[in-house]
């Protein structure tokens, strides 16, 4: 049995060109221009998530926790939402949301209290520490995003933003499980 150091390195991901060529070889009806756009978006999304994950990890939180903080901030002051609304906004099951809220409450990022006007309802609220972590993550993300887009002019950024928003709306309009996400864009 070979030693772990003797093991062959994992194969690198093929370039976009290699991937598209392989797809065309196996599926002749493929539009290479469309495939280049879609594949580039998928890879960009994956790599950006890794980069954001590294940033949030330096702050002692996960991307999943960042998403909860973001949803609370976007909701506006006093930065409160019910667990069901949070789950819906993040596309999670109620059980997954409860687990995430439990972890974040124990870390002091959010509080969970019964609604005084409706004792059945629970309210999740952003804490001062949670807001500070969100602000620091935003500072880090802003630097990363500016570096990412540094080669694009203001006009190119605007066109890219409009084109990507158009594509996003098309997907959300045609996918029944994407309901509600357009509110983030308006």
Protein described:
The chain is mostly helical and 186 residues long. 61% of the residues lie in helices and 9% in strands. The chain has 7 helices and 3 strands. It has helices spanning 16-26, 32-58, 63-75, 83-90, 94-106, 128-148, 154-174; strands at 80-81, 110-115, 118-126. A 3-stranded antiparallel beta sheet has the order 1-3-2. Strand 2 and strand 3 form a beta hairpin. The longest helix has 27 residues, at 32-58. The protein is elongated. It starts with 15 loop residues before the first helix and ends in a 12-residue tail after the last helix. 13% of the residues are buried. The model is unreliable at 180-186 (pLDDT under 50).
TL;DR?
Helices cover 61% and strands 9% of the residues. With 186 residues, it is mainly alpha-helical.
Any idea what the radius of gyration is?
21 Å
> Strand-and-helix sequence, N→C?
HHHEHHEEHH
Could you give the count of β-strands?
3
Measure the end-to-end span.
58 Å
Instruction: Label the structural class.
Output: mainly alpha
Percentage beta strand: 5-15%
What would the average pLDDT be, to the nearest integer? 88
| Count of separate DSSP helical elements | 7
InterPro entries: ArsR-like_HTH, HTH_MarR-typ, MarR/SlyA-like, WH-like_DNA-bd_sf, WH_DNA-bd_sf
Protein name: MarR family winged helix-turn-helix transcriptional regulator
Organism: Streptomyces celluloflavus
Domain HTH marR-type: 34-173
